[in-house]
Amino acid sequence: MITERLGGLAFGGDYNPEQWDEQVWEEDDALMRAAGVNLVTVGVFSWALLEPEEGRYDFAWLDAHVDRLHANGIAIDLATPTASPPPWFTLAHPDALPVRPDGTKLVHGSRDTYCLTSPAYRDAARRIASALAERYGDHPAVALWHVHNEYATLCWCDHTASAFRVWLQARYGSLDVLNEAWGTAFWSQRYTAWEQVLPPRATQWHRNPGQALDFSRFFSDEVIAAYREQRDAIRAFSDRPVTTNLMMPGYQNVDLWALGREVDVVAIDHYPDAPGLDAAADVAFAADRARSFAGGRPWLLMEQGTSTVYAGDRVLAKEPGEVLRHSLGHVARGSEGALFFQWRQSKAGAEQWHSGMVPHAGPDSRVFREVTETGAAVARLAALAGSTVTAQVAVLHDSDAWWALNSDGLPSSELGYHSALRAAHRALWDGGVVADFAHPATDLSRYRLVLAPSLYLLSDEGAENLRRYARDGGTLLVQHFSGVVDSRVHARLGGYPVAALREALGIRVEEHRPLRRDERITLSDGSHGAAWSESIRLEGAEAVATYTHGMLAGLPALTRNGTAWYLSTRLDTADYTALVSALLDSADVARLGLPPGVEAVTREGPECRWHFLLNHSGDPVPLPLPVHDLLTGRLTRDVPAGGCVVLEER
Amino acid sequence: MITERLGGLAFGGDYNPEQWDEQVWEEDDALMRAAGVNLVTVGVFSWALLEPEEGRYDFAWLDAHVDRLHANGIAIDLATPTASPPPWFTLAHPDALPVRPDGTKLVHGSRDTYCLTSPAYRDAARRIASALAERYGDHPAVALWHVHNEYATLCWCDHTASAFRVWLQARYGSLDVLNEAWGTAFWSQRYTAWEQVLPPRATQWHRNPGQALDFSRFFSDEVIAAYREQRDAIRAFSDRPVTTNLMMPGYQNVDLWALGREVDVVAIDHYPDAPGLDAAADVAFAADRARSFAGGRPWLLMEQGTSTVYAGDRVLAKEPGEVLRHSLGHVARGSEGALFFQWRQSKAGAEQWHSGMVPHAGPDSRVFREVTETGAAVARLAALAGSTVTAQVAVLHDSDAWWALNSDGLPSSELGYHSALRAAHRALWDGGVVADFAHPATDLSRYRLVLAPSLYLLSDEGAENLRRYARDGGTLLVQHFSGVVDSRVHARLGGYPVAALREALGIRVEEHRPLRRDERITLSDGSHGAAWSESIRLEGAEAVATYTHGMLAGLPALTRNGTAWYLSTRLDTADYTALVSALLDSADVARLGLPPGVEAVTREGPECRWHFLLNHSGDPVPLPLPVHDLLTGRLTRDVPAGGCVVLEER
Amino acid sequence: MITERLGGLAFGGDYNPEQWDEQVWEEDDALMRAAGVNLVTVGVFSWALLEPEEGRYDFAWLDAHVDRLHANGIAIDLATPTASPPPWFTLAHPDALPVRPDGTKLVHGSRDTYCLTSPAYRDAARRIASALAERYGDHPAVALWHVHNEYATLCWCDHTASAFRVWLQARYGSLDVLNEAWGTAFWSQRYTAWEQVLPPRATQWHRNPGQALDFSRFFSDEVIAAYREQRDAIRAFSDRPVTTNLMMPGYQNVDLWALGREVDVVAIDHYPDAPGLDAAADVAFAADRARSFAGGRPWLLMEQGTSTVYAGDRVLAKEPGEVLRHSLGHVARGSEGALFFQWRQSKAGAEQWHSGMVPHAGPDSRVFREVTETGAAVARLAALAGSTVTAQVAVLHDSDAWWALNSDGLPSSELGYHSALRAAHRALWDGGVVADFAHPATDLSRYRLVLAPSLYLLSDEGAENLRRYARDGGTLLVQHFSGVVDSRVHARLGGYPVAALREALGIRVEEHRPLRRDERITLSDGSHGAAWSESIRLEGAEAVATYTHGMLAGLPALTRNGTAWYLSTRLDTADYTALVSALLDSADVARLGLPPGVEAVTREGPECRWHFLLNHSGDPVPLPLPVHDLLTGRLTRDVPAGGCVVLEER
């Protein structure tokens, strides 16, 4: 693993020396040493330099930097530059540019202006990956391969149409099966020849949900195939691990369970989307996801910002202490280090206002001082390398469900998948519990509690798996509008959700009753809900809380059938947190009683356990006994306001 | 008429057996009988099945269903499937796809992906209509022909440009006349050759209002021509009535007065756009419109939802009792039945969340029980067939005015036509009065009161007609920004509105003074207005209320000249309702004093009158005497909360 | 100058007789005399009449109107009609139509449907300008040439791409220099051949800020080149002054400092964007800008509306008295007259709801009476012609800064340039002070106070200029996010702002800290801010006010270094006005103590001064002594509510 090569956890970031001159490189060498940097990502945006004209590679520039970094004791995460084709690519391959659903063709001028399915692009990407691997595959500085960057660009062009058809032929075998799967009997969409099948381009009314879901699945498979091509080209010349960095949690263009199986180490990028405590909870969310996609193995935080919080129409700065707390928040949940985008804040270009480890203001700055402090802390945690994190609770997470919930024509605009996952995870985080994410069809038996929010699409296997889990005593909370369509986005008939879940939950949902915008409802237990309600018939379950007004008055809102619970509305945050907390207790999930804003996570190695205490609040948190803080090497009697303490337990 | 063939009112809905298998068909047969279904619409989305490749028709599938339905005693409203061309059509006729104003070409993937003006589409549509009529034209099960579905797709392609020019040549004869009509002297738009004339495609600033209005008129005529082509192809083989179902009231792509003259029976689709009492009022609005477009003759509710309320970004469910109340609301105002889209809620496809008579949950459901109850109620009303409804009040309704009010560059974004019609009708509905809609240039002498909201465009004939109506003692309320442009969208000069109206109203509007967003004004009578005000000079009228502040302080806001009233602002709902109520009284319009939320409508036959009492409130409404309720066959002393009573008066 | 030819100030407007018939022309002659009109703009939208087919000019129509106007004693501002090519132009030159960044091609149907960079358009424009000049260049009625109208149409077509490349080649000489300037090392954007360089068309993520800024600069230069071509074609035949009318202040497609140097007289169009006092302040803003772009020389209000206030989604009417107050507001600040768009409100066409001097209602109207009153007032001010206005305060204004602030990827959506300029000017207006605008790199020594809001981009020369200004004792207020990028949009390193300003201000900004939406902060002096904050280190300055909470608590918010002030947040309006007022006092800027809403401005001639007193309030303002009002020729003891007084001081 990479940590063995580094002799500890990774610390560093994207390094783009092509943006700077020699004098800066020299300063970089010194500052990297001062900051404790031991790994940098090089070459992410260097295609134009490395292949100045098609087919002619020029590695002299890169040779020099690789050697310089190596001489400075810094290992390299070597990137293939394929996320940003140079301008010459546009002119050489106009058919390989991305096309939007309405036919608009995008051109270079930012990055990611390629169609992933176009043969010219795929060839060019594979060739440069191969050339890089041939040249640097056994260079001692190279510790990791970083294929591409944040695969995200979709396309609706004719190449995509062809590839989509090939994918559909493999999936369905015949048009008859496809027609049945997509329900093309509706709206006279029956296909009679494969060339009639198109990506979901601009059309007059709602898109076909089966077509839309399959297009998402197809594109995910294309991404993975494109990744595999580069990975395999690299492996032909190099024995170093290969990965690609995943986009932020709000994007969902790839089935991350599948991609997680293809990378040697899961790597993620993470930028909070709200400040303060929300940012800390978002760190935990992203980290728990990454660890889960990695199958519980250690993973790597490939990008974060020293001072970048995306908050809608603005980018907020981070508060003092957050660089350390967020970095350790990731490490605590399994990351083998903390990397940033990027080493130096760019002085020019589209991301000149994206923060860097060395900001525009230079090293004499709060940001660089906190970077240095964080580098020192990470260095002290070298022994953690390879240790893992155990969770007793899981939140179900399925790309199919997410994609299907993007269908046109759903009953409400308030059925968001990402927000539902976030809310579930946040209730657990507020409850002091570390959670895994889990695919609905995987073995859940190691969890005491499983939450299933917004699981609109649930496969037959998934449903049976949940039934079995609850039957065997697992505590399960299924939330509204879950299990209502199958893997082909066909509605479950005879009452929702799918039969196996109806049996497990002891209920039958007869009707969905979306609530009006801004409507709030009160349940019999005093809790409040919004957005959604359902008409439930009890078939074995008991009603824990009922609706109190309207046509649902007296009907069940929250039900329980042994350990299987069903919640048919979107509870207010506090009420939902209280419900989850009660379920944690009833499922005997162990937790510490920590003050609000204080996070405790444990990493476990074969001989040691490390307890992370992250104090996101403004008050120091006293400890019952003085303890030895691994970060400082000193005894401490509290976790300082905004500070962190790590205890080693042998 | 269709009711003779059915032996009563129609009850049923769209039936799409191609979405289901044989086992379901058998259940359908039984459930339709149970629900009292006697008419189903078949084939709306069956083009791909009926013409699997261009020019090859395959009716075996449809034969079987037609015979099965007939054997089950259910009549058929046979649809031509032309609203949804199959995917093969896209590939065979790429020039026949719809193009948006910005040049975006739409492709199949939903429905309605055709250009109505393209010869290939028109030919294909006429051919399949003819083939269906030839095969089923005298089948005993066929009771009605359903051409197309909700004509709505506009196009800006080159075929459309050519057809638009032909239409303009017929309308104007010469470019000189067109140039004068469109005011092309402004902005240097003078046309010197017909090929320069285009549909209003994407351009730099505001569109020419004359061009935009004529494009709306042209497309309406194209729709009617397309309908006529199919209708005439059918009539060559069949003596059954022919119709097409009109879109919801918010759409206005066709001049419904003109289309109403072409169909054998006016048929509408209706889905409320707000819940509760607003939905009931919307039913009345849609039904009164349909009856008016039908020239007072009975008409047919072709589509409604059992549980579909479009409320902005969500689709709300209906409340218990609404299926019956809405169905009878339509019947009370002249519908010869109550049909739904669709019999079974689809399990797949773009409208899988659109409600059905048999919901996903199956027949053991509130919805199906209410459907059955409604079917029984409709069956008891068989004697009503052919009876009519008389109104003493009319709201003026003109497509030209609507379209012209969509011009770019109007003084305020709060000048909505549909909302103004809705507000006027709602004030009458709240006042307990059944209203007609009427074209401004038709004979109004049978009405005691006429409301003219938002009649921006008013033709010379219309103005003269209103002048005559008021002169002859009719009570007329003209509302703000009416009568200000003529049929060519030329402003009326010398003071608004058009001279004939100025004379009738005894006023001259010198200036429009739009109000600021969220600004509210107070009139001297204590009422409040918003959105708009006007500077009025009295020329014979008296000021009933004046403005109280600003530069208009002391100037007239509401005027009266004999029976001709002018209202120059948009009154708040309660104030407007009070004004309309006062006008109803002053015009001696008869009305019952019913509690709020209780609706009374009367249908009149040659020997009988039927009084519908629909209680939309949550409280029972006591009746002065016990009456015999036609719906139950029993005596009742009240109209139950949420319930309906129908009295037969011989 | 034009006023010599007119014998006084100009009064009139756009006159489009092609929209009317002979009977109206006769009425026009009489009404113009009645209103005191002495100058009309003719031909702005007459291309289709003047060149009915390509290359064939027909001036008979125009001859007649020119002679008629001349006979009526009215001078002509003769327009080239090039802002609105006729429909034939679209068909003859499809390659000369404008194309949006996403590739959408616009067609005729409104106005301005041309690509300014296309050779066919430029040729056609130059030819018709030349033909007009040849025919009318020495006609005694022609007093002024009006090239084009409101240059505003951008284009992203292939002609534009070619022209952009030529411009870039001239600017940068080599691709290496361009690559360095644009920072193409980021995101692999390095150009290796000129044909790879494109306008900033639709792309996947953020645009390159250097490319975007250069495209704005390029298009500005194209506009100026297009103007110069027409101007020079006219000068070959005519000795009358030439100008073009600038768009409203919110548009910024042209570097108005540069264009101001090319026109013989600066001419602007002005329509307020808010009613009441805001409109009056907007008049002052627009007028002070126009005077500044004219280098202090008199200028001309080419267009205003008699009753047109653009307020978001509606067009409000003007209040009584505003026609006069706004007209005199412009004249007071240097306009040599008051012209309107347009003489008669159009009865048809896209701007039929744009107000006119003769409204739809005709001359018997408030509007025409106020026009007549204003014409009489303007006539009484003939002696002012050529007099100037002196300001002691300047607001810095730079197109590069404006354009750069339109970059993608800035830290906040609340960094608006236009709104910041407006706020600064408004604080001065509320403080009773007349302000100039000034380019950052020009001599500022005549100003006592200089405000620098939102000067995101500041060139090295500009920075040095400001340093020198403050060093020499000028009072300077630099506001947040200023001086942070150079002329290539490269960030200033080592701390913001640029070094020369850091030295002048005695501070170093280490970090920007955008505030959350709706977040408000309190400073130690009790003032409040929003949108933005910064982390400042004092390097010689003193903290006048500090932040009171958060991580910036105790750090400077407002600093002072001698006469150089820095404000790091966006103060609330009242607090900002108070700060500016204090700076006015400390800089010894003379001002009268006038009541709120009363505006005083002085024009200075060689022998006379004229004091304008404009009372925008609803109360009369008493004067200390009875004075002789030049507007009425009578003594007055007050400025009436909503009225104006002009005093002549010899």
TrEMBL record, chains A, B, C:
Entries under CDD domains matching the protein: A4_beta-galactosidase_middle_domain (cd03143)
Annotated Beta-galactosidase trimerisation domain residues: 391-589
Keywords, alphabetical: Glycosidase, Hydrolase
Record flagged with keyword Iron: no
InterPro entries: Beta_galactosidase_C, Beta_galactosidase_Trimer, Class_I_gatase-like, GH, Glyco_hydro_42, Glyco_hydro_42_N, Glyco_hydro_b
Catalytic activity of the protein: Hydrolysis of terminal non-reducing beta-D-galactose residues in beta-D-galactosides
Keyword Metal-binding appears in the UniProt entry: no
EC number(s) from the headed UniProt entry: 3.2.1.23
Pfam families, per database record: Glyco_hydro_42, Glyco_hydro_42C, Glyco_hydro_42M
Location of the Glycoside hydrolase family 42 N-terminal domain: 14-380
Gene3D superfamilies on file: 3.40.50.880, Glycosidases (3.20.20.80), Golgi alpha-mannosidase II (2.60.40.1180)
Domain Beta-galactosidase C-terminal: 597-636
Family: Belongs to the glycosyl hydrolase 42 family.
Name of the protein this chain belongs to: Beta-galactosidase
